[in-house]
Amino acid sequence: MKREDIEKVAKDYSIGKTYFRRNVLKEVDADDYVLRKGNCSEDFIAGAEWCINSVWHSNNRTYKAQKPALVIFKNGKAKVYDNLTDLTIESLWGEIDRFAYIEDLIPNMED
Length: 111
What we know:
With about 110 residues, the chain is α+β, with helices and mostly antiparallel strands. It has four helices and four strands. It has helices at about 5-25, 30-55, 85-90, 100-105, and strands spanning about 55-60, 70-75, 80, 95-100. It has a four-stranded antiparallel beta sheet with strand order 1-4-2-3. The longest helix is centred in the middle third of the chain and has 24 residues, at about 30-55. It is elongated. The two termini are about 25 Å apart.
């Protein structure tokens, strides 16, 4: 997802959320509407960026060897490994930019 996509969704979300608070709940007066809408949009963007970045780990992190992971190398290439032990064996650990466990990349919509 590109930053522009996140910003568009954030704008739509903040307009709807602030409109609801102003016109239905009567919590927001006209003077605060623009400020609240901007704050809501910024908060949405920050949350989306945190969610996207939270699954990625640097190459100096202790890893759980038995989990499949997507590895991004410093040269920009990517590869999926069944477990990160393969990297130690291949002596590629120093060439890694970041990695994410596959299970963390799959959406989890359960409560």
